[in-house]
Amino acid sequence: MFEFASAMAALVLTLALLTYLVADNPLYRAAAHLFVGLAAGYAVVLAWHTVILPHLRRLVTLGNGGDLVTLAVTALVSLAGLIGGVLLLLKTLHVDARLGTLVVAAMLGVGAAASVGGAITGTLLPQTAAAWVSLLPFDQPGQFVELVVEGLFMIVGTLATLGFFWYGGRAGPLGSPVQRAPLARPVAAVGQIFIAVTFGVMYAGALAASVAVFAERLSAILVIFQL
Asked: Residues 162-217: pLDDT tens digits?
């Protein structure tokens, strides 16, 4: 019975989310709000069981063990986190929004630094390294032509995409629209084609994933009914 109810709920929610492909509607918004609420509740429970509760147990263990220095440092860090959490709570309750501004600023600063560092080390540098391809792969003579074409495709696509975002145009006389440099126009046109194909592939992947999720839910219902 539980499996049937969970499968039906998953099917109904999946159909509700897929209705957004037709138009924005109350059914989709209700399903989206339900997912957001469940995600928030799950995050709270996960934070309690994986962060707060183990930290409290560690404080009790340090207190019983007699390591006063480590206990003092851990207690100060815990106290700072507790004060920051209370200030953020006061900000959400509109008691005094200014009290939590410093905490929010610190969170945003740390988050921005972590995001920039992660983007550089996890995305920018690997993408740059992947764009450096050899046009003379002598180590694989059997696939020479294929690798050369692939390398040219990668280089042209990368440079053309970067050229599309080059804003070096100047406004013409009498307020005419901004025009790119004559040499940059064909490069930008090729880059626009690569960007359009990329977005098309991403949209097709998202749509295929949605259809796959729907098929999996429908298959679960059919298995339960033994059809």
From this structure: 888 877 766 666 666 767 777 888 888 899 999 999 999 999 998 888 888 778 77
Up-side HSE of residue 37: CA atoms within 13 Å toward CB?
A: 6
**Would you tell me the crossing angle of helices 144-164 and 184-225 to the nearest 10 degrees?**
110
Contact 184, 163 (CB under 8 A): yes
Going from N- to C-terminal start, the domains of the chain cover: 2-125, 137-225
Distance between CA atoms of 201 and 193, rounded to whole angstroms? 12
From residue 6, alpha-carbon distances to 10, 198, 221 in Å are 6, 36, 10
DSSP-derived 3-state class of residue 67: coil
Q: Which helix (H) or strand (E) holds 178?
A: strand 178-179
What digits encode the pLDDT tens for the residues 105-160? Answer: 888 898 899 888 888 888 888 877 777 766 666 666 667 777 778 888 888 888 88
- Our measurement of the distance from residue 220's CA atom to the centroid of its chain's CA atoms, rounded to an integer in Å, reads 29
